[in-house]
Design brief:
There is one protein chain. 42% of the residues lie in helices and 6% in strands. It is mainly α and 111 residues long.
Length: 111
């Protein structure tokens, strides 16, 4: 049974990125990218879409800065940059195809 539009995921193409683990909370629970962005007072879907629209290196740099701003994140910037690079690869535009970002809000043209 398909989900009604009201309950369907907002941007399912961003799920791999948004649900990826960034680290751990203080109580040992994995911290998802979605929770990390929310802790930074950013809309997770908007920020993920923004990162997906950037060139890969720009997205890595932006995400590295965000990761370093996370409360309780005490790791070297080189480790944050490596984590950011792995996370950017989970974004739709940067997942290995190198092509333009897909716009899930528009239907493909019919022939």
């Amino acid at each position: 049974m398909a989900l009604r539009r009201l309950y369907a995921p907002f941007r399912p193409d961003l799920n791999n990125f948004l649900f990826a683990a960034v680290g751990e909370e203080r109580n040992g629970i994995p911290l998802s990218m979605m929770s990390a962005l929310a802790q930074l007072d950013l809309d997770p879907w908007e920020e993920a879409g923004r990162l997906s629209a950037l060139a890969k290196q720009e997205a890595i740099e932006r995400l590295t800065g965000l990761i370093l701003r996370l409360p309780g994140f005490r790791r070297p910037s080189s480790e944050a940059q490596q984590l950011a690079a792995e996370l950017v690869d989970a974004l739709p535009k940067h997942n290995g195809d190198g092509g333009p970002a897909k716009n899930p809000g528009r239907a493909a043209p019919r022939n």
